[in-house]
Structures are given as structure tokens and as C-alpha cells.
Design brief:
303 residues; 12 strands; 12-stranded mixed sheet; Aminopeptidase; alpha+beta; 37% helix
Length: 303
Amino acid sequence: MTELEKYLQFSEQETTIPLFSKGWWMDAVCPNEWDAILIKENGEIRASLPYYLQQIGTEKEIRKATLTQTNGIWMRYPPDQKYERALTYEKNMMNTIIDEIEKLGLTKYQQYFHYSFTNWLPFYWRGYSQTTRYTYVIHHTSNLDEVYQNFNSNIRKNIRKAEKSLQIYEGLGIDEFYHLNKLTFERQNLEIPYSFETVLRIDEACEQRNARKIYYCADEQHKIHAAAYFVWDDETVYYLMSGSNPDYRNNQSLTLLIYEGIKLASRLNRKFDFEGSMKQNIEQFFRQFGSRQMPYHNIHKVF
């Protein structure tokens, strides 16, 4: 069994590995262009780093995969470690992983790490740089009334407004969803940055594992206004993609759909991750749902 096959099997079973670092997710978003570094002790995997590897001519880069919020290092800590010992353990594991990264002969390295990864000092000591990014997370969704009361009053008002004219449904085909998603980019004179084939592979992989929902809003004439795509792992529901008809931009359909995603997280007893944006208007929108700002690391180096 190759290291890649071992990681595919391991990440399928290990519930603490975040969704975007699962081997099956990497197979969906960058098939045949990814690998994983595994660090073992006594035959057991103690740390891992999946990565998307792209080579164009003489340029060989580890970079962020499409529709993949974070990758980064996962570690299993020995039980009952004191804090100082945990930091030493992290340093040793990260240095071993960095050694493996630097054996790959890269021209550039860049990965976004999950927000649970807080100590990037070993990378700094090895000459890597870091930029802080932010997502927004509702950590506790079990008490939905409390979550709703934490929304900004404008969000609550917009939800009530949308509920008067729109109904939420399931069952939208992935081709219809992609069309709506594409319209959102076209409205901004942008080209959609991922292919239908990639979205289809994600959808098939998530459906096989019962790890996704597509919700859409329609009016009384059954005209679809917007749709949102949510995925999840054992801890978190993620707001992955959405799209809307530009003719209905002002009816708050996406606000209503995000609320439906938060309800889904509540039913599943999961956190809700907005996959926050660095764009000011989007950041302001996500913040109004009472979510907590969570910093995460963009770690990079040019060799």
C-alpha cells in the first residue's frame, strides 16, 4: 500500500481530520495532482499533511486547491501532555514534515491551515512567511433560538421579509446549481474559477457519504431565486458555494438560505463555518449572523 493509499484509508476513518483535508475530498478537487506526507511512530500515523502539487514546466508548487478552504498539518497528540511538552511535540512533528516538504524540490509553497492550528513558529524558524486570514464560525448551534437572537436585527428583519414570499426546497440538480453559481460570477464580470466537472466530483463524493445539502429558494410562481451548497464533516457544516438569479438580488434569499444552513448545523449538532471572505462587504454580512471571527494561517515560501 502506498503512502497515498494509506492516507486515503486513514483520513476516511479519522473523524478529527477536517473535511478539506480528507483524502476523498482531495481526490474530488485535484485528482491525480495530490499526495500526502505521513509521520509515523510505532507504525501509527501521528501527523499528516495532504497537499495539492502542480508542476508547469520547471515550476513545481504546492498551492491551495480549488474550493478547498484549508489543508495543513493534522497531529495526534499523546494523552495528558503538559503544555510545554505539547509545544515540543509540535515543533518536532512540524520540523519532520518541513524536512519532507523540502525534499520535493519545490519552487514555491503555499497552504492555508485550519484555524485549530495556532503555532506556526517552526515554519517561521525555517524561513517561511505567514499572512493571517479570517473565517467566521458559529461554535454552538444546539440552541437555535439563542443563535437567532444573536443575529443582527437587520438579519432577523431580512429573514422575516424573505419568509413572506419565498419557500425553501431541496432536490435541485447539480447542473442547475452550477448554472446559478456561475451567474453570480458573471454578474461581477468574472469567470467562474472552477469547472462543472470539479463540482460534479465533489457532489458525487459528498452524496456518497451523506455529507452535503443543496437548498434553494423559489417564489409562488416556482421561479428559483437562489441556491446554497453546504457540506460537512464530523464537527462542522461549511457554507461552500451559492448562486442567485441577478433579477432577484434584493429579496434576501441568500440570507434565508444561510439561516437554513445554520438550522442544518443545529440538527447535526455541528459548528457552522461561513468560510469567511477577506472582502469587506462579505465580512460584514457574515459578522452580522453573530459568528465569531477565527484567524487562520496562510503559510508560504518561495525557494
